[in-house]
From TrEMBL:
Coiled coil: none annotated. Pfam families: Hexapep. This is Gamma carbonic anhydrase family protein. Signal peptide: none annotated.
């Protein structure tokens, strides 16, 4: 992975550790990525997000999108943050010292706290709070403050969320291409 134009966001080292982003990662203007952060191919970090890997690490897989205004942080020495592949995180979420497995979904304005896990295809509904150490099982829907299991998601619902991930991946590449054209660095 090398540092290229990612769309206009700020990518900063901390204590000598620089974020590592795949070439096609989109980082929107106003977003900040700091320190021990790795982001995989095709992922997108949208306007005014903060990913702060200062006292532990943040890992984001391939094809994931972290939407506008979301904060991703860690706990000192105890809880890094791991975001898998094809994860969808809605606007204004707080992701802190947790693990979001492949294809998990975090709704708008939700909070995921230290030690939590959202398993594959699991969903935390909009506005919910997943308190420390809780685990949303595969294909489960949880909601509320504090969040509780509501039901198992239907296959059609999961398919719709996966389409949302693909839509964001396509949109991110359009934004990235336009940013590179503006800067005269279009490699295509």
């Amino acid at each position: 992975m090398q540092m290229t134009n990612h769309g206009g966001g700020t990518v900063l080292p901390f204590r000598g550790i620089s974020p590592q982003l795949a070439d096609d990662v989109y980082v929107a203007p106003g977003a900040r990525i700091i320190g021990d952060v790795e982001i995989g191919a095709g992922s997108s970090i949208w306007f005014n997000c903060v990913l702060r890997g200062d006292v532990n690490s943040i890992r984001v897989g391939q094809g994931s999108n972290i939407q506008d205004g979301t904060v991703v942080h860690v706990s000192r020495k105890t809880h890094p943050t791991h975001i898998g592949n094809d994860v969808l995180i809605g606007h204004m979420a707080m992701i802190h010292g947790c693990s979001l497995q492949d294809r998990s979904f975090v709704g708008l304005s939700s909070i995921v706290m230290d030690g939590c896990v959202i398993e594959e295809d699991g969903m935390l509904a909009a506005g919910s709070l997943l308190s420390p150490g809780k685990c949303i099982g595969a294909k489960e829907l949880w909601m509320g403050r504090p969040a509780r299991r509501v039901r198992v998601l239907e296959d059609a619902e999961i398919a719709a969320y996966r389409q949302g991930v693909l839509g964001y991946a396509e949109l991110a590449q359009v934004y990235l291409s336009e940013a590179q054209q503006r800067d005269g660095k279009d490699d295509q």
